[in-house]
TrEMBL record, chain A:
Family as reported in the entry's similarity comment: Belongs to the universal ribosomal protein uL23 family.
Record region (Disordered): 110-148
Localization (cell): Mitochondrion
GO biological process: mitochondrial translation
Organism the protein comes from: Gryllus longicercus
Name of this chain's protein: Large ribosomal subunit protein uL23m
Quaternary state and interactors: Component of the mitochondrial ribosome large subunit (39S) which comprises a 16S rRNA and about 50 distinct proteins.
A GO MF label: structural constituent of ribosome
Primary localisation category: mitochondrion
Keyword Mitochondrion included in the entry's annotation: yes
Bias type Basic and acidic residues, positions: 110-124, 131-140
Keywords: Mitochondrion, Ribonucleoprotein, Ribosomal protein
Automatic annotation (TrEMBL), chain B:
An example molecular function term from Gene Ontology annotations: structural constituent of ribosome
UniProt keyword Magnesium, yes or no: no
Main location: mitochondrion
InterPro entries linked to this entry: MRP-L47_sf (IPR038340), Ribosomal_uL29_mit (IPR010729)
Pfam families: MRP-L47 (PF06984)
One record GO biological process: mitochondrial translation
Family: Belongs to the universal ribosomal protein uL29 family.
Record keywords: Mitochondrion, Ribonucleoprotein, Ribosomal protein
The protein, known as: Large ribosomal subunit protein uL29m
Gene Ontology CC annotations of this record: mitochondrial large ribosomal subunit
Length: 148, 276
C-alpha cells in the first residue's frame, strides 16, 4: 500500500516522513525492580531505540534520556498430547529512562477488594464453631448446651 | 474556517513520502479526546458536530505516561461502554488534517487498550469489552484506506500513475505463481542476474514436478467440489420450489445448466408438479 511504501532514500530527495505510524507500545509493570525513573515497555519488534524515543517525545510529550531495548525470545513448550513444540512470538522490551527528578510508579489498577459482609459473617461463624468444638473437647458425651 | 482548511488540505498530497528509519511527527495530534472521537462516530451529524468541537478545543489534552491507562473510573470495571468504529463514509468527509489527528487518537487508544489488556492478564483479571481493540483496528484500517484513496486520486491526476507499489507475476522456488509487491522499479529480465540464477537452479527436479502435479490436483478437486455443491443446491431449490423462476436461477447460478438439472432425479419431490 502506498502509505506503507518506504522508498529508498537518495541524496537530494526530500526528507522522508512517516505520517501514519503503525507502531504500538504498551506500558508494563517492571518484571524486576527498577529505579523510580525507569519505565518498561513492550514495543513493536521493528522499532528501534530512536523510534521509541521519538514516539514518546512527539506523541506522548514524555521527555526521554535513554532507551535500552532487547528482544525476548518467546517461550517454547511441548504440546501435552501430540508432543510437538510450540513457540510463542518474540517480543521487544524497551527500558526507558526519564530525566532526573521525574519518576513513574505503575498504578494499582486492580486494588485488593475489601471483605464483603457475607465473608465477614462466615468467618465469625467459623470462629464460634471452633470455640464450641474446643470447649467440648474434654467432656465427651455432654450435650452442647450443657455449660457452666 | 472548516471549509477553508478542508479545501486547502484537499489540494495537498499527504502520504507520498515515508521513511522507516526516523520518525518525524507533526505535533498536532491531540485535537479531540479519544472517548469523544470514538463515541461520537454515530451518524453524519454526530461526525460534523465532532469536527466542530475539535476547533473549539474544549477537551483538555492529557500529556503524560498516564495516557497509557484508561480513565480511573474504569479501573476494575466489569463493563466499559463505547460506540462503534469509524466508517469509511464518515472518514471521507473529513479533511486530511482531521484524519491525521484522528490517527493519533486511535493510536493512543490502541496503546491504552493493549496496556490494560496486558495488566489484566498479569493479574488474572477481567479485561472489560475486549472488542474495543477490534473497533480501533477497524477504524484504523478504514482511515488508512481513505488516505490511500486520496493518495491514488492525487497521483492519477498529477502523474497518470496510481503511485502504488508495483507488483508483477513471478515464480517462487517451487514454480508456483506469486504476485509480490516490489520495493522499487523492476529491471529487465535479460539483464537481471538474479533472475538467471533462479531460472538455472530452481523449478527443477522430480520432487518439484510431483508437488506441482499434486497441487494442481488439489485445486482441481476443490473446484469440482464447489461446482457440484452449487449444482446440488440448485437441484434442491427446484425440488422445494417447483414454480421457481428459472430465468432468475440462471442469472444467479450462470455456471449451472438449469435445464439439465431439472431432469435429474434429485429435483423430484412430493409436489404434484415435480412428482415422477
Amino acid at each position: 500500500m502506498s502509505t506503507r511504501w518506504y522508498p529508498i532514500y537518495k541524496r537530494g530527495s526530500p526528507q522522508l516522513r512517516v505520517f501514519l505510524p503503525n507502531f504500538w507500545l504498551k506500558l508494563i509493570r517492571p518484571v524486576h525492580k527498577q529505579p523510580p525513573n525507569v519505565v518498561q515497555f513492550v514495543v513493536s519488534v521493528e522499532m528501534t531505540k530512536h523510534d521509541v524515543k521519538n514516539y514518546l517525545e512527539k506523541i506522548y510529550n514524555v521527555p526521554v534520556v535513554q532507551v535500552f531495548t532487547r528482544i525476548v525470545s518467546g517461550e517454547t513448550r511441548q504440546d501435552p498430547g501430540k508432543g510437538y513444540v510450540v513457540k510463542d512470538d518474540d517480543y521487544k522490551l524497551a527500558y526507558v529512562t526519564l530525566p532526573q527528578g521525574k519518576t513513574f510508579e505503575f498504578p494499582e489498577l486492580y486494588p485488593k477488594e475489601e471483605e464483603s459482609e457475607q465473608d465477614k459473617t462466615q468467618k465469625e461463624l467459623k470462629k464460634h464453631f471452633k470455640n464450641f468444638v474446643d470447649r467440648n473437647k474434654d467432656r465427651p458425651g455432654a450435650p452442647g448446651w450443657f455449660s457452666f | 474556517m472548516f471549509v477553508l482548511t478542508k479545501l486547502k488540505y484537499l489540494a495537498t498530497p499527504i502520504n507520498y513520502l515515508n521513511s522507516s528509519i526516523t520518525l518525524t511527527f507533526s505535533t498536532c495530534c491531540n485535537g479531540c479526546s479519544r472517548e469523544k472521537l470514538i463515541t461520537c462516530a454515530r451518524d453524519f451529524q454526530g461526525a460534523v458536530r465532532c469536527v466542530a468541537a475539535s476547533f473549539l478545543h474544549t477537551s483538555s489534552s492529557r500529556y503524560d505516561l498516564m495516557e497509557f491507562f484508561d480513565d480511573e473510573k474504569n479501573w476494575g470495571a466489569s463493563e466499559v461502554k463505547v460506540g462503534r468504529a469509524w466508517k469509511k463514509e464518515e472518514l471521507r468527509i473529513k479533511s486530511n488534517s482531521d484524519l491525521h489527528k484522528l490517527w493519533y487518537v486511535l493510536l493512543k487508544e490502541r496503546n491504552m487498550l493493549l496496556t490494560m489488556e496486558h495488566e489484566a492478564k498479569e493479574k488474572v483479571a477481567l479485561f472489560p469489552n475486549p472488542e474495543r481493540l477490534d473497533k480501533v483496528a477497524e477504524s484504523m484500517e478504514n482511515l488508512e484506506s481513505v488516505v490511500r484513496e486520496r493518495n491514488r486520486a492525487y497521483f492519477e491526476l498529477e502523474t497518470g500513475e496510481t503511485g502504488e507499489k508495483e507488483a508483477v507475476f513471478d515464480h517462487e522456488e517451487l514454480g508456483l505463481k506469486q504476485f509480490p509487491e516490489l520495493a522499487g522499479k523492476r529491471i529487465s529480465k535479460h539483464i537481471d542476474e538474479h533472475w538467471h540464477y533462479r531460472l538455472m537452479t530452481l523449478f527443477k527436479g522430480s520432487a518439484v514436478a510431483k508437488f506441482k502435479k499434486l497441487y494442481r490436483e488439489k485445486i482441481a478437486n476443490e473446484e469440482r467440489k464447489a461446482r457440484n455443491r452449487k449444482r446440488n443446491h440448485v437441484m434442491h431449490l427446484l425440488k422445494r420450489f417447483p414454480h421457481i423462476d428459472t430465468a432468475t436461477l440462471e442469472k444467479l447460478y450462470p455456471e449451472v445448466n438449469i435445464r439439465k438439472a431439472m431432469l435429474h432425479k434429485k429435483t423430484l419431490g412430493n409436489h404434484p408438479h415435480n412428482r415422477a
